[in-house]
Design brief:
about 650 residues, mainly beta, 5-stranded mixed β-sheet, about 55% strand, TonB-dep_rcpt-like, tonb box, receptor, siderophore uptake transmembrane transporter activity, Plug_dom_sf
């Protein structure tokens, strides 16, 4: 596996920084002229982006699927259509990845990890992953508080000609008994205000065959207790005033019921655990531009999450484990930005977040947390040199009703980024960034009786990055070529690691001490013409990660790779498309890893190689109709991201959409 990966890397040696590209067609009589411009790959910090038009080419069903090709990304997937899916960027862990929806961060103070498998793509316009943070000056202070930030933007209302209303009806079906209807309704209320309503329902029995490893046979077993039923509704109101002033209000409600398939241990896949969720959030955002160039941004959010977990086979006096959690979050943010001069801009942001967790457990701590974020950012432009510096203060205060709360903290986190463009005529840019970040233990880390440890130390991470970007357009059959390359070093102290036990809901928390992470992100993206009507697109990403424990030279895990961190990953996407149709092939290769800190043969998790194929076609009728067919795991490979949690074999998904 490693040899195949490394030989492939020599031909695909640099990273596609940003994905979605825009095609424009100009028709003059019978001559068709196609000219494609690449999206700007140059960003202050490493950034990768895909848009809604790219989801089909990736055979993506949810946000986790959509970003799996990104450099430096390690998806933890527990299998099945409803399995937990989290993302670790550059080996720092899922808790260091922030998730932002339309400018407001989504968080979970209970476990700190956002399940990206719960976010479907029906209403998503674009997804951008920033290492460090976005270079936007006018943004909340909380946007600087993560090692990386995943920014999700919803579809904005769009109307053709003089129409004031648009409706999209969609339906997906396929393997695992999948049924997934959805509707999107957009309405222009007035000259400056719009309404966007999206609703979807999803149901699946979740059963699939997998190969039983270890006995040398081709025995197949059936994955059970993976059933899923979800419903999600979202309504957003937009107002666009004069002078680019904007107001947005959103309400979102979702509920789900899902089985939790257990680890396949000694050929016993039995599990009867179940999870129910009911989540509600309301958020608003207002941005104002003053005549003196001062900009003002206000965000607010209320979120309430209910979770119920049951295990009918739990060995206690009651003979069952039935736990209920209620989490409440209140959030507000104010940000200002102002250009001091033609080369100097300043911004100041202040955020306040309150989190509370209730749980029906005897002698539970019932924690509350108040977190204040304050960020001062300065941006300088000197001809070809750009410098961006941020100083973030995070102050955390906690209270508990029982026991002792985690100590209060006030942490200063600096960030500095720089880019340099050496030549005016060549689209080449060099970039550097340094960021010092702090991750506080979550409520579950500290207070959950089955896994929490109040002696857990906070986790600190220093990030260093050096890279370059290059982009060039051509007047030949090759439209463009985009290259990026970034080398990085992360120095982590008291790294918090979550190791899953026999089920998905219980973890063992531990501090690893010191971890050194060295990595390289490389890739390429290009697009060219194949005759007069067809285009060929190709993107490739390569990631190298060495994440080793350097805590104690006398320890048995010294210089061992930390759990679930492959050293090499390659992702390739290739497609042939016309104006109305496309066929795309996606391939991901990942080398082996270990599921415990000691890199011993008995803890070995094999690497894998998985391919997907997608075909799409659009009918240009009065009401545009599109069809998509996707085959995941095309060659029916047997593999697992997480030991004892086998992934599905070959599966099919069919999609239909009509726009009225």
């Amino acid at each position: 596996m490693e040899k195949r990966l490394l030989s492939l890397v020599f031909t695909l040696f640099v990273s596609a920084g940003l994905f979605g590209q825009a095609d424009t067609s100009n028709v003059l009589k019978e001559v068709s002229v196609r000219f494609v411009l690449p999206q700007n790959v140059h960003s202050l910090n490493p950034a990768q982006q895909i848009s809604a038009r790219d989801f089909k080419s990736l055979a993506a069903y949810n946000v986790a699927d959509a970003i799996r090709n990104f450099s430096g990304v390690n998806i933890k997937d527990y299998g099945g259509i409803g399995g937990l899916k989290t993302v670790s960027v550059r080996s720092l862990g899922a808790n260091h990845t922030g998730v932002q929806l339309d400018g407001v961060q989504t968080s979970d103070a209970q476990n700190g990890q956002i399940d990206l498998g719960k976010i479907n793509l029906d209403n998503v316009a674009s997804i951008t992953l920033y290492n460090g943070h976005s270079a936007e000056l006018l943004q909340p202070a909380r946007a600087y508080s993560s090692a990386s930030m995943l920014v999700i933007k919803s579809l904005a209302p769009q109307f053709a000609d003089d129409k004031k209303q648009r409706v999209k009806l969609g339906f997906k079906t396929g393997s695992f008994g999948l049924l997934h209807p959805n509707i999107l309704w957009q309405r222009q209320i007035s000259k400056r205000s719009y309404l966007n309503v999206n609703s979807s329902w999803q149901k699946s029995h979740g059963r699939y065959k997998y190969k039983v490893d270890g006995d040398g046979s081709d025995t197949l077993a059936t994955r059970t207790n993976a059933q899923l039923s979800t419903m999600q509704s979202d309504a957003a109101w937009y107002w666009n005033g004069a002078d680019s002033n904007r107001l947005q209000f959103r309400i979102n409600y979702s509920q789900s019921s899902r089985g939790l398939p257990g680890a396949v241990v000694y050929y016993n896949p039995y599990s009867n655990q179940h999870l129910w969720n009911r989540d509600l959030f309301l958020q608003s955002s207002y941005q104002h531009h003053f005549p003196n160039k001062l900009q003002f941004l206000v965000n607010a959010k209320f979120a309430h999450n209910y979770l119920r977990y049951t295990d009918p086979d739990y060995l206690n006096q009651a003979g069952i484990l039935d736990q209920r959690f209620k989490q409440t979050e209140l959030y507000e943010s104010v940000a200002l930005s102002y250009p001091i001069s033609g080369i100097w801009e300043l911004s100041l942001a202040s955020d306040l977040t309150y989190n509370k967790l209730d749980m029906d457990l005897y002698n539970y701590a019932y924690p509350s947390r108040l977190t204040a974020f304050s960020a001062l950012t300065s941006k300088f432009l000197f001809n070809r040199l750009s410098i961006h510096a941020t100083l973030l203060n995070t102050t955390i205060t906690e209270w508990v009703e029982k026991g002792t709360a985690s100590p209060s903290k006030s942490i200063w986190s600096p960030t500095i980024s720089a880019t340099y463009k050496p030549f005016d005529q060549t689209d080449l840019q060099f970039r550097l960034f340094y960021k010092d970040i702090f991750r506080n233990p979550t409520f579950n880390d500290l207070y959950y009786t089955r896994s929490g440890r109040r002696d857990l130390k906070p986790e600190y991470a220093e990030q260093y990055n050096a890279g370059l970007t290059y982009s060039k357009t051509f007047n030949t059959f090759v439209y463009f070529l985009s290259l990026t390359a970034d080398a990085y070093y992360n120095n982590v102290k008291d790294k918090i690691i979550a190791i899953p036990n026999k089920d998905l809901f219980t973890w063992t928390m531990m501090n690893l001490g010191k971890v050194d992470i060295r990595g390289l992100d490389l890739g390429i993206k290009t697009k060219s013409a194949l005759g007069r009507q067809l285009d060929f697109s190709l993107s490739g990403n390569y990631t190298y990660q060495q994440a080793i424990d350097v805590t104690d030279p006398k320890s048995s895990v010294y210089l061992h790779q930390i759990p679930y961190t492959p050293k090499h990953t390659v992702a390739i996407n290739a497609g042939i498309s016309s104006k109305r149709s496309g066929v795309y092939y996606n391939h991901i290769l990942s080398t082996s890893r270990y599921y415990l800190s000691e890199n011993l043969p008995q803890y070995y998790v094999p690497g894998f190689s998985v391919s997907d194929l997608s075909l799409s076609h659009q009918l240009e009728t009065k009401y545009p109709i599109s069809f998509t067919a996707e085959v995941n795991n095309l060659f029916n490979q047997s593999y697992a991201f997480i030991r004892s949690f086998p992934m599905p074999g070959r599966s099919l998904r069919l999609s239909f959409q009509i726009t009225i």
